[in-house]
Amino acid sequence: MAKVLYEIDEDPRVAWIKLNESKMNFLSFQVLQELYEAIFRAEKGESYAMIISSTSENFSAGADLKELRDLSFEEGIKWFERYMEVVRLLRASSKPTIAAVRGACVGGGNEIAMACDLVVASRKAKFGQPEVRVGSTAMGLGVQLLPLLVGEKRARELLLTGRIITAEEALQIGLINRVVDDEKLEMTAKELALEIVENCSPQAFRVIKSGLNFWTDLAMISAQIARDLTCFVWNSAEFKERSEEFLQKKKLKSRIFKGLK
Known about the structure:
By secondary structure, the chain is of the alpha/beta class. It has helices at 29-44, 65-68, 73-92, 108-115, 131-134, 142-150, 152-161, 167-172, 185-199, 202-218, 223-234, 237-247; strands at 4-8, 14-19, 49-54, 97-101, 104-106, 118-122, 126-128, 164-166, 178-180. The relative contact order is 0.14.
């Protein structure tokens, strides 16, 4: 069964890319591979805009911890590179990209939503970067992009506490664009996509997007360093212990915070 579905809307100007991995839509290497191929297909195809959504009650709960905890350092590098290829392709797309989010949109799921041009969420959607709680880094995009979207202090709170926020709070702090009733989610995302493709100049759209990406791309200069450091973290005993505690739904053990002096 395909873990990512590619569908052309009844209005052929819109392509739908739907995460279809499971109830939580964890991002495994296979899901990332299929997601990259679907985004590339939409970018290369005849549709004018693409919408990233899901077939379940959740957008994505982020990376598949069961997969990450068993990766070697070199395998982690390959996983991270495939993930970053998805993010880069979304951000560089010449077409409007919109995330239609319901349910959990956390960790890598939130980073994929942030990589889209616009985010529409249902009222029950939840957002956040909880990686710090399980011993991971949120350096796939969260650490780099979140401060630019919501401000440094808000980003520090979300990244350093791992707190999950509601769709309404995400709207208030500028993380997402719109909040709608659940039954209106896909319709609103489609209307937004068509508003752009019917009224905007494709050439001007590309230039404006490139200009906006200039500022956010500055934050991605250290992407290779972030990749290597993250993979070292994934290969550590602390990450493997905390991820195992999380997967077994145990109370996460508190650990000592040591100074560097």
